[in-house]
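Private note to self, pasted from the team thread so I don't lose it. Backbone tokens:
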């Protein structure tokens, strides 16, 4: 990998375990890669404006000033060989910070085309890792809440043209230190089974 785009979506910033695990993957797998970082939670994007909506519905040219933020974010994605998203699950789905990034990046005529068969992605595919942290359990025998994040985010990325997506789930992070450590060890085992992002099973995970 020459260039990696890292989206960090937790309000805990660099202290979030998912963020730290994402950085460990990058440092171990591709230490020489250029890293493009977007901390969407602690450095939030501006809200969508009326000018943006008007430009979007009016099919304004890509260099319209209203598209400046959108073009910056899409450009970062286009230049990357790999995408890594470290995100919490908020209220069963993606947090607001990540949803805003999606609203800027998923743009008709620019990153997807509307066809009679449906929306078709216009971006090149690339290996993508999504690290999802949750205080509770949403998969497996201990699940007590629905998971609208995984299917939604997979569909969003697919609409962009990105289909090589691996999800790693860190569940039960709010159930004490032992549960959090178990979640991190489970994430390491999940990573070991991925095609592009395996860490050594002997890796020491930051707690």
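Design output:
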């Amino acid at each position: 990998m020459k260039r990696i785009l890292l989206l960090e979506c937790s309000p805990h910033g660099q202290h979030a375990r998912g963020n730290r695990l994402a950085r460990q993957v990058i440092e171990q797998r591709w230490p020489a890669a250029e890293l493009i970082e977007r901390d969407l939670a602690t450095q939030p994007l501006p809200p969508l404006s009326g000018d943006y909506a008007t430009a979007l519905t009016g099919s304004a040219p890509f260099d319209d000033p209203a598209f400046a933020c959108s073009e910056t974010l899409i450009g970062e994605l286009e230049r990357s060989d790999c995408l890594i998203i470290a995100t919490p699950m908020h209220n069963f789905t993606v947090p607001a910070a990540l949803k805003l990034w999606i609203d800027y990046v998923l743009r008709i005529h620019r990153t997807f085309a509307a066809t009679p068969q449906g929306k078709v992605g216009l971006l090149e595919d690339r290996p993508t890792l999504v690290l999802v942290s949750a205080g509770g359990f949403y998969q497996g025998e201990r699940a007590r809440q629905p998971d609208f994040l995984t299917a939604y985010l997979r569909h969003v990325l697919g609409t962009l043209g990105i289909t090589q997506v691996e999800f790693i789930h860190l569940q039960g992070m709010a159930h004490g230190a032992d549960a959090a450590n178990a979640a991190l060890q489970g994430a390491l085992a999940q990573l070991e089974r991925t095609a592009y992002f395996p860490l050594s099973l002997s890796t020491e995970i930051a707690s």
